[in-house]
């Protein structure tokens, strides 16, 4: 059952870490023109000559793409950090990156330096790379098996809430502008109690530095609250060998004294892994017993990013413009798409335990591939047939819905579920690196693809969605409501390997579960 400590730890870790990943993905879209003016003005002040446009384009694409590059570096730090500092420890240390970057970005305009913004985007990326892997791992290890999927989707829910928050705060009428005078007056009015003059002068400086700097606040909240919650019980028991602490953590999270079943299951997992030891990334790639799990997470993570979700988001503005939405209203349309994204991910939280992971992944990729195919058609015909531009809006919305119910939230849940304790950190490191590399690649290549292929670039995304869907259909098993050991047995058959399980464990299956014992013996 859902207990208060479990709900709180899920909310605090998702708000303090995942939220900011989403926030920083979309935060620089709205204030882009003002930030580019700032780059220009700073350069002019320094050199006395205006910046030429190709250099400005280069600087801006660096500002955008340094974030996923940092994400890749962050993913590479997952394995050493979660094994040495623990899951909770890693999240706490990680906040320092975010707070440092927030301070730097927030003061960049006062300091008259745009290089700091680009540097901070790398640091924020490192933060997001760690967060996007460690939060699902942390929450997946703490959840009971019947809530693991639902709680595993919470980080993705907060990523979408972060994207939406940045879109709303970035509206021109709020902070997505060159100065925040109107806002400053509101704040100084509200903050008469404190020393409002300092506050006002901070906000007066400009709108967008505040927008960029706000990202430090969730980190601060997490830094102050997360220490009061337990570390992952699995980490405590299996990696630290501390049963007492693990038992205490479990009792708090489950709200009951009797946690023997789960402790037993962890010991069982521990024993089956003793032979293998801790996995590094290299041993993960060479170990036959995890071959299909590894291929599966690489395919799912690559499919998630290469299915063109960033391309669709990027293209959305133009699609709406061509459908006749006036340009000053487009940012509100973008916000509504962000809201659909949040609502559909929230829906996934509630249906992932009843429908299962497989159905959501397959349905999601199916909807995305259909949307991409029809979108290609609609974009091609919209100059000849007037209502085609409305069809393309429908396609964008359908695509967002499809991605939000499956491809976005489920792969991280699956990494937690398909790997046992000793290989999980290395698996997240691989999955995370694939995620950020693919994200970086789409960001880099999409503009060229679009210039060269026009609307046909969505056919490539369609092909990727279909390929991923077929792979999932034939290879990926359903994992809902199974223990990590049960999932491991299903995959062991696929990998054609025997699982190391001690003799007494096989005989200790309760009467109702003799069929599992048979399944085990037959698979050996």
UniProtKB/TrEMBL annotation:
Annotated keywords: Cell membrane, Membrane, Signal, Sugar transport, Transmembrane, Transmembrane helix, Transport
Membrane-protein topology = Multi-pass membrane protein
Q: Does the keyword Membrane apply?
A: yes
Read off the InterPro entries from this record.
GLUT, MFS_dom, MFS_sugar_transport-like, MFS_trans_sf, Sugar/inositol_transpt, Sugar_transporter_CS
List the GO molecular function terms: D-glucose transmembrane transporter activity; fructose transmembrane transporter activity
Q: Might you report a single GO cellular component term?
A: sarcolemma
Q: Which reactions fall under this protein's catalytic activity?
A: D-fructose(out) = D-fructose(in)
Tell me where in or outside the cell this protein is found: Cell membrane, Sarcolemma; Cell membrane
Renumbered residue ranges of the record's region Disordered: 502-524
Q: Which domain of life does the protein's organism represent?
A: Eukaryota
Residues folding into a coiled coil are none
The secretion signal range is 1-18
Instruction: Give GO BP annotations, semicolon-separated.
Output: D-glucose import; dehydroascorbic acid transport; fructose import across plasma membrane
Cite the Major facilitator superfamily (MFS) profile domain residue spans from the record.
10-480
Transmembrane regions:
58-79, 91-111, 117-139, 151-171, 206-229, 294-315, 330-352, 359-381, 387-405, 426-447, 453-476
The family line of this record is: Belongs to the major facilitator superfamily. Sugar transporter (TC 2.A.1.1) family. Glucose transporter subfamily.
**Protein name in the entry:** Solute carrier family 2, facilitated glucose transporter member 5
The source organism is Phainopepla nitens (Phainopepla)
């Amino acid at each position: 059952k859902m207990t208060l400590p479990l709900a709180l730890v899920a909310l605090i870790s998702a708000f303090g870490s995942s939220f900011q990943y989403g926030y920083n993905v979309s935060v620089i879209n709205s204030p882009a023109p003002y930030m580019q003016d700032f780059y220009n003005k700073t350069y002019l002040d320094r050199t006395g000559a205006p910046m030429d446009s190709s250099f400005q384009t280069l600087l801006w694409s660096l500002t955008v793409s340094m974030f996923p590059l940092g994400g890749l570096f962050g993913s590479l730090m997952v394995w050493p950090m979660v094994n040495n500092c623990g899951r909770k420890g890693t999240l706490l240390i990680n906040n320092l990156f975010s707070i440092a970057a927030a301070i730097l970005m927030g003061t960049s305009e006062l300091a008259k330096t745009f290089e700091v913004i680009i540097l901070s985007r790398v640091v924020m990326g490192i933060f997001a790379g760690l967060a996007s892997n460690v939060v699902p791992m942390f929450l997946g290890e703490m959840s009971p098996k019947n809530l693991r999927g639902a709680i595993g989707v919470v980080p993705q829910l907060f990523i979408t809430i972060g994207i939406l928050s940045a879109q709303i705060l970035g509206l021109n009428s709020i902070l997505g502008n060159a100065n925040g005078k109107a806002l400053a007056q509101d704040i100084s009015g509200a903050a008469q109690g404190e020393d409002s003059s300092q506050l006002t002068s901070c906000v007066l400086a400009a709108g967008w530095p505040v927008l960029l700097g706000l990202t430090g606040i969730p980190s601060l909240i997490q830094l102050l609250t997360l220490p009061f919650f337990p570390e992952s019980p699995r980490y405590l028991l299996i990696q630290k060998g501390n049963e007492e602490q693990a038992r205490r953590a479990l009792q708090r999270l489950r709200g009951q004294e009797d946690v023997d079943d789960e402790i037993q299951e962890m010991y069982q997992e521990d024993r089956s892994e003793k032979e293998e030891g801790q996995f590094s990334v290299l041993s993960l790639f060479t170990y036959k017993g995890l071959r299909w799990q590894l291929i599966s997470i690489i395919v799912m993570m690559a499919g998630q990013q290469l299915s063109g979700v960033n391309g669709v988001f990027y293209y959305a503005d133009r699609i709406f413009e061509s459908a006749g939405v006036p340009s000053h209203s487009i940012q509100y349309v973008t916000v509504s798409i962000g809201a659909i994204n949040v609502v559909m991910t929230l829906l996934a939280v509630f249906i992932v335990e009843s429908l299962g992971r497989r159905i959501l992944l397959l349905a999601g990729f199916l909807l995305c591939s259909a949307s991409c195919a029809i979108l290609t058609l609609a974009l091609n015909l919209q100059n000849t047939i007037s209502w085609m531009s409305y069809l393309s809006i429908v396609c964008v919305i359908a695509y967002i819905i499809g991605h939000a119910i499956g491809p976005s939230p489920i792969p991280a849940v699956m990494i937690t579920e398909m790997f046992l304790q000793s290989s999980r950190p290395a698996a997240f490191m691989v999955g995370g690196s694939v995620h950020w590399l693919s994200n970086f690649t789409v960001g880099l290549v999409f503009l060229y693809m679009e210039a060269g292929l026009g609307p046909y670039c969505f056919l490539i995304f369609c092909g990727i969605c279909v390929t991923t869907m077929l792979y999932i259909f034939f290879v990926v098993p359903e994992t809902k409501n199974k223990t990590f050991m049960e999932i491991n047995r299903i995959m062991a058959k696929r990998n054609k390997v025997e699982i190391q399980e001690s003799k007494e464990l096989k005989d200790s299956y309760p009467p109702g579960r003799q069929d599992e014992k048979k399944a085990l013996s037959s698979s050996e």
